[in-house]
């Protein structure tokens, strides 16, 4: 059996009992970063052989994992934090297992994008997760423009080194829409800033930022509350 196991995005207390049960029972753990996963396993007193499985070796490691599954062994896939397959390695392994008629399931748990969109205060009934945008301005703006007229709340992941540039490009592409900037979710210094894109730009320093950021931006013409939208849907 192939298990995709969600792990904490910051606070280790967010691990689920089922995740611990699976990690203790499998034959091997496929890890995006074996060092970080080793720390997680050690914290919960779990000792398992690890297989490096990341964006740079997905095909080669995927073949190895598939062979283990064909031999009747069980493998748990984890990423550095959160849910495997969401802007992290995982989906290609699911495809491989499905095509080979191998059993695959998921142990649900923390996902940063869901937490960020809920805490943003923006409409959550319909949103589009866009993941990480291109690193350079031209590519990033083209990436953004795909959703320029979308009514859905938009959710992006961004590096601390580029988040300010991202906000500036978002202002140029989308206009001064309501938005939220989330950082260090579930950790001691968890922070969610809400306001217009221009106000977030004004309060975001140019350097010394740390951690992964999630940017949530209102869809076009969708700054209304969830309850109002729900009422409109009922009338239809």
TrEMBL record:
Stored CDD domains: RsmI
EC number, UniProt record: 2.1.1.198
GO CC annotation: cytoplasm
The reaction(s) this protein catalyses: cytidine(1402) in 16S rRNA + S-adenosyl-L-methionine = 2'-O-methylcytidine(1402) in 16S rRNA + S-adenosyl-L-homocysteine + H(+)
Family: Belongs to the methyltransferase superfamily. RsmI family.
GO molecular function, one term: rRNA (cytosine-2'-O-)-methyltransferase activity
InterPro entries linked to this entry: 4pyrrol_Mease (IPR000878), 4pyrrol_Methylase_sf (IPR035996), 4pyrrole_Mease_sub1 (IPR014777), 4pyrrole_Mease_sub2 (IPR014776), rRNA_ssu_MeTfrase_I (IPR008189)
Pfam families xrefs: TP_methylase
Record HAMAP family: 16SrRNA_methyltr_I
Keyword S-adenosyl-L-methionine: yes
Cell location: Cytoplasm
Domain Tetrapyrrole methylase residues, every copy: 1-200
Protein name stated in the entry: Ribosomal RNA small subunit methyltransferase I
Role played: Catalyzes the 2'-O-methylation of the ribose of cytidine 1402 (C1402) in 16S rRNA.
Domain of life: Bacteria
Swiss-Prot/TrEMBL keywords: Cytoplasm, Methyltransferase, rRNA processing, S-adenosyl-L-methionine, Transferase
């Amino acid at each position: 059996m192939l298990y995709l196991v969600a792990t904490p995005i910051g606070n280790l207390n967010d691990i689920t009992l089922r995740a611990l049960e699976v990690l203790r029972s499998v034959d091997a753990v496929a890890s995006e970063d074996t060092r970080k996963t080793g720390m997680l396993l050690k914290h919960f007193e779990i000792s398992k052989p690890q297989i490096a499985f990341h964006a740079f070796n997905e095909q080669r490691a995927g073949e190895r994992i598939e062979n283990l599954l064909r031999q009747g062994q069980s493998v748990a896939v984890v990423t550095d934090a959160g849910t495997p397959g969401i802007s992290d390695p995982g989906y290609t392994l699911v495809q491989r297992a499905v095509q080979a008629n191998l059993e695959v399931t998921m142990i649900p748990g923390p996902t940063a994008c869901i937490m960020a969109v809920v805490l943003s205060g923006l409409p959550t009934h319909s949103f589009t997760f866009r993941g990480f945008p291109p690193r350079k301005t031209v590519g990033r703006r083209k990436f953004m423009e795909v959703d320029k007229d979308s009514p859905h709340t938009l959710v992006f992941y961004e590096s601390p080194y580029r988040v300010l540039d991202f906000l500036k490009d978002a202002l140029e592409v989308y206009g001064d829409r309501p938005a939220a900037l989330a950082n260090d979710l579930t950790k001691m210094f968890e922070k969610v800033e809400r306001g217009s894109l221009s106000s977030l730009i004004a309060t975001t320093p140019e350097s010394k930022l740390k951690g992964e950021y999630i940017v949530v931006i209102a869809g076009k013409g969708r700054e209304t509350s969830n309850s109002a939208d729900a009422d409109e849907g009922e009338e239809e």
